[in-house]
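Help needed: design a sequence for this.
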């Protein structure tokens, strides 16, 4: 077994069924922190802004006494919509980045906007971008990355995501080829990339210098086939169980982690098993089993 000495394992509120700052179907933040610590993880993400305490002193106290540290904050952006969305985008980003910085985090995960409603499936805009929209997306992402780095000292890692415009191998590589490697890195989510037909190992081997962060996730290929056949939006697909507990799904995580280790750089690999909505007692045993599995992989 190879020791994955360059990989730092963590988990996220997403693995506890948390998608929103406040939702009655989600576990309270105190329970998430208690259980993620009890599962053997030392690193977490902030999740949706406002779920965990936004007071830096309270957050530091609550994470510190449980032996937890923060690896990243997360924001959703619609930068392909042009300069007109910049001010509102920056207002949101700045709040999350400021909180992330106070925790000692070094990364900001940026997720593109959905082109169809995550719950209803209503088409909100075209699923493919025009050339002009691609230019706006890439240029404004570079601007965002530059501002976040200069003002908050964080590295922007863009997260390819189902039902967004950065999803398939074609769109991910187009985005990477059009952005400055010094500014923009990738948060490779193994589950989302497989959901959209991509090969994570191939991407790491081809664009290794652009891989700045990992989300570990697997898809149930049987459920995925149904999702594709029925053209389900991502939210209902998750509720159907399209993202599953490792190591029962795809892609196999051992070769992904080995390829990441081979890059020779320190990387966070944050478990993010989409589970919204889920029974409150479901996440903890899954998290414990997943942590044990990743230890068996050398992480």
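Sure. Designed sequence:
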């Amino acid at each position: 077994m190879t020791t994955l000495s360059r990989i730092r394992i963590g988990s996220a509120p997403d693995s506890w069924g948390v998608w929103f700052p406040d939702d009655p179907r989600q576990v309270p933040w105190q329970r998430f922190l208690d259980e993620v610590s009890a599962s053997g993880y030392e690193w977490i993400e902030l999740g949706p802004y406002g779920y965990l305490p936004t007071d830096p002193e309270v957050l530091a106290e609550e994470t510190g006494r449980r032996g937890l540290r923060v690896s990243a904050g997360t924001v959703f952006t619609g930068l392909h919509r042009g300069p007109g969305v910049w001010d509102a985008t920056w207002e949101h980003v700045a709040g999350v980045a400021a909180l992330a910085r106070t925790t000692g985090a070094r990364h900001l995960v940026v997720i593109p906007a959905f082109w169809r409603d995550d719950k209803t499936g209503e088409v909100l805009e075209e699923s493919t971008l025009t050339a002009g929209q691609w230019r706006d997306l890439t240029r404004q992402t570079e601007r965002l990355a530059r501002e976040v780095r200069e003002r908050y000292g964080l590295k922007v890692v863009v997260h390819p995501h189902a039902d967004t415009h950065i999803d398939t191998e074609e769109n991910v590589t187009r985005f990477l080829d059009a952005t400055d490697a010094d500014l923009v890195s990738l948060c490779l989510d193994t589950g989302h990339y497989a959901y959209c037909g991509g090969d994570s190992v191939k991407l790491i081997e081809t664009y290794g210098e652009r891989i700045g962060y990992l989300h570990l996730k697997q898809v149930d290929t049987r459920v995925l086939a149904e999702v594709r056949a029925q053209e389900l939006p991502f939210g209902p697909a998750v509720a159907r169980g399209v993202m599953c507990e490792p190591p029962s799904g795809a892609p196999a995580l051992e070769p992904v982690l080995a390829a990441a280790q081979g890059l020779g750089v320190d990387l966070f690999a944050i478990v993010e098993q989409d589970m919204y909505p889920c029974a409150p007692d479901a996440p903890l045993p899954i998290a414990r089993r997943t942590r044990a599995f990743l230890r068996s992989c050398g992480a």
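The chain is about 40% helix and 15% strand.
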